[in-house]
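Q: What would this chain look like folded?
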Amino acid sequence: MMFDGVLNVLKPPGMTSFDVVAWVRRQMEGIRTGHTGTLDPSAAGVLPICTGKATRAADLLSASDKCYRAEMTLGITTDTLDGDGRILSTMTPDVSEESIRHVLAGMEGPQMQVPPMYSAVQTGGVRLYELARKGQEVERSPRLIVIYSLKLLSVRGPKVMFDVECSKGTYVRKLCADLGDRLGCGAYMSFLLRLRTGVFRLEDACTLETVSSLKAEGRLAEAVMPLKEALSGHRGVVLAEEQAAYFTSGGPVTLRPDDQGKCGDIRTIKNGDLLLIYGPRGELLGFTKDLTDAGNGRMIIRKRKIFA
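A: My prediction, written as structure tokens:
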């Protein structure tokens, strides 16, 4: 039974992402597994889990843009920026829907976000949440994120529901707190549902009950998306037989402008760009981000990660 691919799981609230991964690993009888982006225990939604050889591509999949449905509660702040933390302040918010729409619109675009203390970001080899649990707060370096869109869905008293499309690394808890600060009343994130990450959507996600049923029927492999399909949105190039052998053995591979693939003109690719590498029969061999300009439109692949 082939489990090399990505299983789109609907993470329920109350479980950590690592709990879900461990549970799926047991269903797959010890096959290597790994998730592509942590969800807080209280959050729910899309949690793509890489299985088998696809775990080598977990970093690529986790770099995808995300879409969330979130609710923030105005007038209350907490130390964790969500409903699990200690209440720091309360007030009765006096904010109009027009003001909320204006503040949401003003938060769109590229910006620097300071990670919350209750997060897995490391400083000096220690995760921030470990320091936060000891009552310590340290300076954190802001990180570049992009808020592509913020769509207001409803305002019911202090409860504000909205959808957000954002880049990897965005903390929606921190976004809610920042929105509350801009509104002048404070806020915490009271609900979070991940609707999409990359090509994986909520409507296609498998509940744990579905995964269990498929396992019992011997059909679990049917729910695993092949890695080639999961990465289909990225540029790639098809190698000839001899080139493919060099690539999988670790030798240098020269790409020429007339090499076929869906990457367009080779000359538009630069070092640091992600390039998927396919074999002559269309099989996904691996990827590279290490390209050297060899002149005359040629690029040389140096370092690479191999899936085959």
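The longest helix spans residues 172-183.
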